[in-house]
Amino acid sequence: MSFIQNFKNANAMIIGASQGIGFGFVKQLLQDTRINQIYATYRQQQTAAELLALTSEYADKLTCIEMDITDELQIVEAVRNISTQINKLHLVINCVGLLHEDDFQPEKSLRQINPENLLRYFQINSIGAVLLAKHLLPLFRHKEPSVFASISAKVGSIGDNQLGGWYGYRASKAALNMLMRTAAIEYGRSCPQTLVVTLHPGTTDTRLSRPFQRSVPPEKLFSVERTVSQLLTVIEQLEADDSGQFFSWDGSKLPW
Predict the structure, then answer these.
(1) Nearest alpha carbon to residue 248 among 140, 146, 160
(2) Dihedral (Cα; 80, 26, 189, 157), 10-degree rounding
(3) Distance (Å, rounded) from C-alpha 205 to C-alpha 123?
(4) CA dist., res. 19 & res. 153, Å (int)
(5) Per-residue pLDDT tens for 174-203?
(6) How much is the pLDDT for 1?
(7) I want to staple 244 with a disulfide (CB 3.0 to 4.6 A). Which of 12, 183, 184, 232 is the partner?
(8) Structural domains of the chain ordered from first start
């Protein structure tokens, strides 16, 4: 039997829920009768219109919270807000990630290394996740099976890196994997019923991957709906000794 086979009346939190994979998780979990409450975070109102529109339709199940994971005070405030309504979380999925922005793209060579951009990659892809682990821990300190998952990327695997390039993205995702692996060990002592994992979603048709889709074979480019279904299947099939592991969308373990 999988670790969370008996999920019922569960509370979920999706971080980075305004678009892409995060928004896909919200839509799918709203239809899941095992999930009681969903807390969905977004960074800016202007890019969260679709998510916020769902709150009128699902007022009893969906709560949206403005939160930037690069600001620890905002994380503290969001967790305090959630804690006034519930005292435990069962499924948390951190979907926040940065690959490119208007002002920068992933580096193709050492010539393009820029310390400010590197810091930004780490702030969003690595440090934000471990701040979540720090402040969400009290809501995982209960006796029911729970999962804290972060969306990582196969390019963050040091063992798998054959192509080079993308210094900041690769390194920040490798750091995410190490931070979550380390958090998994502490969670194992503090809240042993919670599994901490990182997940590679595959190449998904989102804003993050759009500039880089040309070289992806059509059968390897997943719709958001397919990615979400695949990742939820991986989560549902986790076993008690899987905490601290790095899984691909098909359930296989990825090298560090």
Answers:
(1) 160
(2) -120
(3) 24
(4) 18
(5) 999 999 999 999 999 999 999 999 999 998
(6) 42
(7) 184
(8) 10-247 (3.40.50.720)
d(CA 96, CA 74) in angstroms, rounded, equals: 15
Supply the DSSP symbol for 104: B
Neighbours of 214 (CB within 10 A): 6
Residues counted in the chain = 256
Both tokens assigned to 20: 């892409």
Report yes or no on whether pTM surpasses 0.90.
Answer: yes
Provide the pLDDT for residue 3: 53
In terms of Cα–Cα distance, which of 45, 233, 62, 252 is closest to 147? 233
Residue range 218-248, pLDDT digits in tens: 777 889 999 999 999 999 999 999 999 999 9
CB atoms within 10 A of CB 27: 16
pLDDT for 41 beyond 70: yes
